[in-house]
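User: Can you help me understand a structure? I only have the sequence.
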Amino acid sequence: MTKFLVAGGFLVLNLYTYHFLATTEEYPPRTSFSEFPLEIGEWSCGERELMEDGVQRNLRVTDYLICSYRRAAQKDIVSVYVGYHESQVRTGGGGGTTSSVIHPPRHCLPGSGWDIIASDVAPLELPDPGTIHVNRLVIAKGETRALVYYWYQSRGRVIAEDWRKVLYQFWDRATRHRTDGSLVRFTVQIERGDVDRADATVLDLASRVVPMLPAFVPN
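Assistant: Let's start by predicting it. Here is the structure, written out as tokens:
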């Protein structure tokens, strides 16, 4: 019974927020990811990767960065993805309802053949903006292991949990007329089972990338 009440409450909140409190959306100015630096300290990305048209249509992402940053001295490679959605409103049309809501990696990775073998919310200690709490996954495909850090960076907040993202989206839609947001993801292969080194590698690059994000993902 409790589950039905909770589900009903979310439905009522959704209808009330979208149809009574907010009838327009605001799209804040931002810098395109085409201007995101490919050289960041000792890290460099040869070129930005492009999504296939079908993938971009499926994700309904407004702008994105996909880059494999390399640190030559240590032979480290970290894949960075930041996908920005200027709106996450579901809209109806002749072909049915469409949605630009951010897809959680936790749901997408198994569809790509990855098994999630460890998952938690972990602190990521950065010089700027300080400690943030993000999702940390260890994933496996055959003998390959990788470490993934990801979070939602939306309207000035860093959010790990899906449910918290949804609640803030409702609130900001009602009070700020905004639903824009982004998914930020760092992925590094775990070499020879050395998870600690993989953590340190992500931390080094994230400490350089995250302070630059507000220009591309507006607060």
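Now, to help you interpret it: The radius of gyration is 18 Å. The CA atoms of residues 7 and 142 lie 38 Å apart. Let me know which part you'd like to focus on.
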